Amino acid sequence: MNAFWENEMIRIAANFSVVILCLVLFLAIFELVTKYKNWEEIKKGNMAVAMATGGKIFGIANIFRYSIDHHDSLLTMIGWGVYGFVLLLIGYFIYEFLTPKFNIDDEIANDNRAVGFISMVISIGLSFVIGASIR
To answer: Where are its TM segments located (predicted)?
Structure first.
């Protein structure tokens, strides 16, 4: 069985499959913690939601990129990816907390593209910091 998992094509397919499943799960969690419905808003053309969601997708994928790069076992890669996602989620709540003059979710739902852009950049930026830390 070890020879099976040592095959590079199998490892790539396994990593890809796991990251896609985690991405879907983590986006569902983000959907639960935001006041707006990501895909409904994107379908309506809400660019702020599209930017914020794109940042989350990039952030999650980037965290897993580092996790794959630094860990040989699939379970270890998943564990560090989940930990990185939790940190990204905490970063989202800190961003919300540090902007008491307006509500981030309401602004993004109202297509405030400046807030959507900053949300995207925060997700992307934090993903690099989180990723570099999970060695």
So the answer is: 12-33, 45-68, 74-95, 115-134
